[in-house]
Design goal:
5-stranded parallel beta sheet, elongated, two-stranded antiparallel ribbon
Length: 238
């Protein structure tokens, strides 16, 4: 079982993640455990403050190091890995999601205000992860994105594991067009190859569709795909 402990000022915001669809089921089936720690419980301030002003006069407030340290030490074991959700971190992708699914005891720190004291980031954090090049108000939504993306790769969480392989970003291509019933929807037909019953034709159509869509929607990935294909060609010739 994978254990994820989240240090947050807003533990109640994770109720959605914990009860909804695939993640809710993963928790129910004991594939995933999610523990919530309220950072504020570790405040030693009589007003329960957890933040303070930034040295050097920069705008905003930071979560104080002692509060975060105490919260972290209350749950950290020798084998735990600590991840800080941060706009300044390495950008999350499918490969990282797969790697995170290998971590059995993960602690996620959700920042707030202007973030957290750098002594925590620099000395107690193993990974600093961003969900994209934009700034959100807190680390809770990014933490949910990380957990949702990694949980799909925990053994037994997604029923049909083949579906993970055909998903966008498993390899360089994104997923091509897919259809469900009816065959005719307002005059728009399902491509005949997909209802031919011929697996080879279906596979060829799916690959063609993935390539076409990648070219149209993600030209950056399409370029990468072409480079990989030409490298494979050279390797096969040698
Ligand atoms: C207002 S942001 C702080 C931004 C910080 N001053 C900076 O410029 O990088 C507050 C918190 O939201 C979270 N956060 C914001 N954007 C994020 C992103 N793109 N990815 C991951 N976490 C993010 C972080 O935990 C951060 O501590």
């Amino acid at each position: 079982m994978n254990k994820v402990t989240i240090l947050t000022l807003f533990p109640e915001s994770f109720e959605f993640l914990k009860t909804y669809g695939v993640i809710g089921k993963a928790i129910e089936n004991k594939k995933l455990e999610i523990n919530l720690v309220n950072i504020r419980d570790f405040s030693n301030d009589k007003h329960n403050h957890v933040d303070d002003t930034v040295y050097g006069g920069a705008a905003g407030m930071l979560i104080k190091p002692q509060v975060l340290y105490d919260a972290l030490m209350s749950v950290k074991k020798q084998k735990s890995k600590v991840c800080y959700m941060s706009a300044a971190g390495k950008k999350l992708n499918q490969k990282l999601a797969i790697d995170f699914a290998e971590i059995k005891d993960l602690i996620i720190i959700c920042g707030h205000y202007e973030g957290i004291d750098a002594r925590i980031t620099n000395h107690y954090v193993d990974y600093e992860i961003s969900i994209g090049d934009y700034v959100l108000t807190g680390g809770e939504i990014p933490a949910m994105v990380l957990i949702d993306s990694m949980a799909r790769f925990i053994e037994g969480v997604v029923g049909k594991r083949e579906s993970l392989i055909t998903d966008s970003h498993y390899n360089t291509l994104i997923q091509g067009d897919e259809y469900t019933k009816p065959r005719n929807f307002r005059g728009y037909m399902v491509p005949s190859e997909l209802i031919s019953g011929d697996h080879k034709r279906v596979d060829e159509w799916n690959r063609r569709s993935a390539i076409d869509k990648t070219r149209r929607v993600r030209p950056d990935l399409y370029e990468k795909f072409l480079r990989e294909e030409s490298k494979d060609g050279i390797n096969q010739e040698n």
